Amino acid sequence: MSAGGLRATSVPHPRKDSKDIQNLGPYETLDTLREEFRFNEAIQKQITQLENKGYIGWRRVRGDGNCFYRAVVCGYLEQLAFAATVKQREQWSERFLAKLESQTLHFQKPTEHQAHQAVLKHIRQIRDGTGWVSSRQMLRSMQDQSPTSLDLGLVRAVRHLIAKKVQENPNVMLPLGMTLADVLSSQGDTPERYCREVILPMGKEAETFVPNLIVEALDIELEVALLDRKGTLSILPYSPGDDAAVERPTVNIQHRPGHYDNLYKKNPEEPVTTAVPLKPELATASLSGQQLCNFGPSFIRGKESKPSAAVRNPSAPHAGTKATDSEVTDSKTRLGEKEGSRVYHMGTASQASHSEADPGALAAELAAEKRRADEAAAECERLTDRAEKAEDECKRLRKTMEEIAQQKKNDWNDNFELMQQLEAERNRATEALEKRHAKTIAELHEAKERAKHLQAECQGLRDALKQAQDRKQNDRPLKERPCGERSCGS
User: Fold this and answer.
1) Beta-bridge partners for 264
2) How far is 422 from 402, CA to CA, in rounded Å?
3) What are residue 250's DSSP bridge partners?
4) What count of Cα atoms within 13 Å lies in the side-chain half-sphere of residue 151?
5) Which helix (H) or strand (E) holds 475?
6) Nearest alpha-carbon partner for 311 in 296, 326, 325
7) CB 23 within 8 A of CB 58
8) CB-based contact 97:120 (threshold 8 Å)
9) DSSP alpha helices (H): ranges in 255-358?
């Protein structure tokens, strides 16, 4: 590895809409990036340096903490789906698919498992040549933000692949000749905790040595252009530490304080053309025969959007000897029978002679056939766009229905929990009141008993007092007694 790690800081930057886009924005030229930083002379200078190094455009990436992983995944998928050769596409896709199908890479939650299955499906389609046909189509597939989306499935899978790489080989070499295990140990950290707290959590920004680790996990080349206030452009290259002779896809991204976006040296939305060789029967055809092939796409192998080099340049020299018009007609007839294409013939026994064939009429008929094929292809493209829009609308409606159902379920659960809480409070209050009532009754009964006891005591005291008064009255001397109480003898 030839560069150190980066840390995504939280320093604000002029970009205002990184969190407002869905997941990935459309391809834009560097002019829009320059417009965003029109008041920053240092970054303006760095954008000019980017153009001098061959960069022509960029793509906005949603800023939700996963921007680094999303930018790398987007660039990686574009390299896989729109590789320069079929061999590259098959080899790179098979290599990535093997990593994703590893038995150690599995997810327990149903939403995560469903998202991972969607990832596997799309990578298999890319490998088999039945995947996305354009960058815009890929972009539409990546815009879903639901828990089962392809976007989150890819980000989660890449995070787990990095964690798997770290746990299998913590001695991966970092810059300055140190291993990851040595660096973590010097910081009092472990590979397990580093994966658990830095790599695996969704929404966690890429820190420290993640760029060094992602090239090892995905087996890719990575170039990170640093745009900052220094005014001098820095491009950090990252490469796996194994065999340098292996051909790998190269992903280009840019890093500004707190955020990552994609960079491009080629417009990803330009039509992808793959050179398809002419059939051997046409290799020795005359000029008129090759001109006829220019109007008949069924005479060329595969699905080709443009004619071959020989067709585009009729004046180019041809291999072999010049064929006669009858040989061209025979060759065309055999090819039409072999591939199920339309067989053009004269229609009558007298017109069966190839020497009497009318090349002009045949060319006009082939031109009409080509126009019909082009119209059918355009109609197919329109229908495909309509179907994709309808599918997106269905996904949106399904997501809305799921959200409404979930909201109703949550409301019902909240109401049910509230009712349970109220019932429990009522039961507790009733029980407390019953206990208080019983206690009050007991206290009242006890008070009544004490009152009766006090009344008895009071009555006893009154009786005793009266008896004492009577004794005192009887014990007084006779002369102190009232006259009525004195006896007659006295």
Assistant:
1) 57
2) 30
3) 221
4) 22
5) none
6) 296
7) no
8) yes
9) 280-283, 287-295, 309-312, 325-339
Per this entry, what is the length of the chain? 490
Residue with tokens 């472990």: 190
Task: Give the C-alpha separation, 49 to 226, whole Å.
Answer: 11
Please tell me the number of Cα atoms within 13 Å of 456 on its side-chain side.
6
Measure the CA–CA gap between 376 and 378, rounded to whole angstroms: 5
The model's pTM: 0.56
Residue 360: predicted pLDDT: 75
Which pair of tokens denotes residue 59? 């793509």
Q: Which residue has the tokens 């065999």?
A: 243
Q: State how far the Cα of 134 lies from the Cα of 197, in Å rounded to an integer.
A: 37
Q: What is residue 333's predicted lDDT score, i.e. its pLDDT?
A: 44
Question: Which token pair is 1?
Answer: 């590895």
Q: To which residue do tokens 């969607």 refer?
A: 118
Residue 147 token pair:
């828990």
Cα angle for residues 84, 88, 90 (degrees, 5° grid)? 125
Phi, psi dihedral angles at 59 (to 5 degrees): -135, 130
- The continuous run of DSSP H or E covering 199 comes out as none
- Binned at pLDDT 50, 70 and 90, residue 372 comes out as confident
**Closest alpha carbon to 363 in 295, 431, 437:** 295
- Residue 10: φ, ψ to 5°: -105, 25
Closest CA to 86 of 302, 252, 283: 302
Count of C-beta atoms within a 10 Å radius of residue 302:
11
Q: Which two tokens stand for residue 380?
A: 């197919």
